[in-house]
Amino acid sequence: MNTYLDCIPCFVRQGLEAARFVSDDPVDHERILRAALREAAEADLSQSPPAFAQLFHRWLRESSGVADPYRDVKERFNRMAAAMMPDLRERIAAAADPMYLALRLAVAGNVIDLGVKGGIGEGEAEGSIRRALDEPFEGDMEAFRAAVQGADSILYLADNAGEIFFDRLLIEQLPTERVVLAVRGGPVLNDATREDAEAAGLCDLVEVIDNGSDAPGTILASCSEAFRRRFAEADLILSKGQGNFETLSEEDANICFLFRVKCPVIAAHAGLPLGSHAAIRWTRQTERV
Amino acid sequence: MNTYLDCIPCFVRQGLEAARFVSDDPVDHERILRAALREAAEADLSQSPPAFAQLFHRWLRESSGVADPYRDVKERFNRMAAAMMPDLRERIAAAADPMYLALRLAVAGNVIDLGVKGGIGEGEAEGSIRRALDEPFEGDMEAFRAAVQGADSILYLADNAGEIFFDRLLIEQLPTERVVLAVRGGPVLNDATREDAEAAGLCDLVEVIDNGSDAPGTILASCSEAFRRRFAEADLILSKGQGNFETLSEEDANICFLFRVKCPVIAAHAGLPLGSHAAIRWTRQTERV
Description:
Helix content of chain A is 48%, strand content 11%. By secondary structure, the first copy, chain A, is α/β, with parallel strands linked by helices. The first copy, chain A, has a seven-stranded mixed sheet, with helices on both faces. In chain A, helix 8 (163-171) links the parallel strand 2 and strand 3. Chain A is globular. The two termini of chain A are 19 Å apart.
């Protein structure tokens, strides 16, 4: 999707929040904020929001010399998620429909998104995940189950650190021998990289690849050729998070998008209620299954 | 107060919302948003937020040729407020402490602020005002009463259209022969001008002056000399809204600030809980009565 005008104030807020991740000095914060404003003033709105964020965060890492500003917070969310796993795994094992509960929890974990809301803390995220089943669900569980059963190869696109533990709960319900998990090729925001997949024990469960890109989404042109080949060959792509939706919603592929609808722009673009948990297929013709 | 870095993303959002008040054409919206971003990138943060907003909105009116972009919405809120008056006036008449209820309602009316939240509708505002007494109150009613009784002249600084009807409820509880009401000197955002004071019938109740300025606050250097004289001569100033607080909090004058704490920046600056209703005096030494 294109970048909407309403994305721009949100970028600026994200730029200021990011500044506080690379420095404690208000002089740096002001300099970075002014740079974000200048970049936003010239932004190419025909690109997706993650394309803009990719450039900004790359510049921020290079100019600050901080290679992975969100490393600490990613680890904090990984620890929070890890602590929730034993209880959630028991609930899934006892559930009438384990795959459905695992799917709902994987989508619920998408609340851990420091792009949309920089100030979210572990406590708020945990509470939100525990209330997950109370949120409206937009999707067709039987269609999801059939898509999984009919796929010889499934490419699962991870989104954020912390969240990736909840992805594992869903992946455990899939035919793991047919699943490949893809993470970002390098640090950007709190997006999951290989370290986070390892922290969640996913490297022992499925094949893990990276997409070769530092965009907070999946911009195919920015990904490695090896990733693009895996993407093209997959029977089914399970795409987590808004960033992957924003960058892949117009791709001609068999994609099921799993995400929380966290902002009014995405709600309007996808035609889904704000706050809902989505498991949808999507085509250029807005055909949804 | 100075402009905080956290005010900047909010300015940008306000700039986009303002664009939609002067035009229905997305091309205009983009042009105005990019101009707001460029202005924000060069903003003088030693000035107060209303100083920045004054320049932006003046440019917007001049470049669009729309002299009063918020005129329609101001009239809508005036009508909403007018419809609420008979019931509220009965409640005040029956109250154990009519001045306290009128004060609370005047502060509650400060929810009608299109700078802080452009999208607020009449229904939301009305509901919020009806729940006013449930919100925490930061102030000392007896100190307020004593300040009013001890003042030979009271200058009441209005804030927004619609809200000004709720100001009237409080002004009716004051010694009206000693009250002068000041409105903005020209249109800016949904701030009240003389038309709105007339709509609320205030010109028949008290002397109404304008401050000669088009800032969404009271920047004394931008006000007329006549207004500055009235300001200097008043025994007590009752200052409504965040914009007036942001621009007058460091003035050496006997000011009681009446406002809703509507954003985290003001909450932190004033040391008051977000969402609270304030009736506070304030000095450079942060002495509060």
